[in-house]
Amino acid sequence: MRYVDLGVICAYLIGITWFGAHFRNSQKSLKDYFLGGRSTPWWAIAFSIVSAETSTLTVIGTPALAFYGNFGFLQVVMGYLLARIVISTLFLPHYFKGELFTAYELMQRRFGLRLRRLTAGLFLLLRALAEGVRVFAISIVVSIVLGMGEIPSIIVIVCLTLFYTFEGGMTAVIWTDVVQMILYVAGAIVSLFVILDHIPGGLPYVLDAASQAGKLQVFDFGFDLSWAFFGKTYTFWAGVLGGCFLTTASHGTEQLMVQRLLAARSQGEAKLALFASWGVIFFQFSLFLLIGTVLWVYYRDTGIAPPQPPDRIYPQYIWTNLPVGVAGLVIAAILAAAMSNLSAALNSLSSTTIMDFYKLHRPSMPENHYLKLARIATLFWGVVLLAIGILARHVNSVLEAGLGIASILYGALLGVFLLGLLNKRASERSAMIGMSAGFAVNLLLAVNKFTLWFPPVAWTWYVLIGTTLTIAVSLAASAILDREQPVG
What we know:
The chain contains 17 helices and no strands. Helices cover 77% and strands 0% of the residues. Helix 3 (42-68) runs parallel beside helix 11 and helix 4 (74-95) runs parallel beside helix 9 (236-253). The chain has helices spanning 3-21, 30-35, 42-68, 74-95, 105-110, 113-146, 150-197, 202-212, 236-253, 255-262, 267-302, 313-321, 326-361, 367-391, 398-422, 428-451, 462-481.
């Protein structure tokens, strides 16, 4: 046991938990608990978006992608920028009309109560499953450090994160996100320089070796109309289009991200936060891909067998090779990424549960009643995520598993949101038929990866396919069912 490193990690865990919990006194209403009182500066929201968008999946999953592949994942990140243009132009003006607490209130405004509940319910399912995979990713790191089983590791982190999220609400989520994002990016930079110091020739040698092996390749412009084209995960077309649709869905329709935008002081500040976050995201993914490439050179030159599964490569190296104190700092940084995302998920799941379900049935209760139930809902979802994290221990790549799960449901969500914003005729019934079709097809594509009833389709295409099908089926249903008069 390296007691200095463990001391650094424990100090971080205690400090961040105390820091988040001390925001409890500012939580006087649902607006405070779920939206931070709409008083958060844009730069803090930008950092919070980055923390929620990346998480432990990025920190331990991205180096593994570069280790066994190349820089092709950056094509997906470029699609993230296009998505931000769509969201700021199309979605934000609607979210800042009136006082919305969740993204799904917009669906009730356009279609009706049933669709609000359906979209909110899909979000709860989506976020619980995807976050469960992220909870498991935490256990990989903690089990390496403490040498204990994955289940006790999951319990420790979930309980600590649950405590300050329960106490401090959205304000605690955003400001702990700021601290944690700075910490894990700084930790990654430190680890990069330390790893390079272990490689004779340093960065120039690494870049030369990686270039000769084709590992610095970013773009794959290959294009054909065969089924195999849709089976490749990281091509320019799958990356840019898939990344655009994926991020438009996640940042434009999912409460986890929309809640942060709604916490901004104004629509202008929300837009500024959204675009500023992309610059940090691009830098961050590039940094972790570079770390994976450096580790590839290190293991190749030393002849040491890399650890398995692939997601253990980066955290395992840190813990066994970095100097005492530095290793503790970098591991604490990885835990920071995990806790920031988990806290955001807990708060968004709680807000959707209360605002889109409970409060609709009992709209006239005192504010303190809703605030108390919001904290109880946070506890409930903490237990659910703990259970899913334990069940998710058999995935191969935590990064691709998390994004793949999200992509199954994002297509239907984005499709119905775009339908509502761009079409005034389709009714609630038509929209629900389209959503069902889009979700069913994406689920079939995901299940097919294991059954191989037909050639597999890469997860980067799921959202585009689901969105297109949702809109197409909704419009076809509307042409048959909505002949009387326009709605909305």
